[in-house]
Design goal:
single chain, 4 strands, two-stranded antiparallel ribbon
Length: 115
């Protein structure tokens, strides 16, 4: 697992415009409010996760701050360094990742609002 810190991009990009997509929530621990979780690709030709991800990412296009929408959709709050916040974020993100059945009956991870 790699820890991804978007702060290294801050010199020329605003964090309100950046999104991390990863199959491991812990990899975007430092920027939970920028992270969009996705399930692992396991080679199933009926996997629709990237299609659903595309729809979700398009919904972020005109957001003034993507962190507000991601936080609302996945129920996370910015990490303040406290273990309680990190535990809350991990638990909340996992709970919000409800499976949906795709055409090939592969579960698709979506935020709790149905994207």
């Amino acid at each position: 697992m790699y820890l991804k810190d978007l702060k290294i991009l801050e010199f020329n990009r605003n964090l309100c415009e950046l999104v991390i997509v990863d199959n491991t929530v812990a990899s975007f621990y430092l920027n939970m409010e920028n992270g969009v979780p996705i399930i692992d690709f396991e080679g199933n030709p009926n996997d629709r996760a990237l299609f659903h991800l595309t729809v979700y990412l398009k919904s972020l296009l005109y957001e003034e701050d993507v962190r507000d929408k991601i936080s609302a959709d996945f129920g996370v709050r910015p990490v303040s360094g406290a273990k309680a916040t990190a535990k809350h974020n991990e638990t909340t993100v996992r709970a919000s990742m409800k499976p949906k059945e795709s055409q090939g009956s592969l579960p698709i991870v979506t935020p709790s609002n149905g994207y």
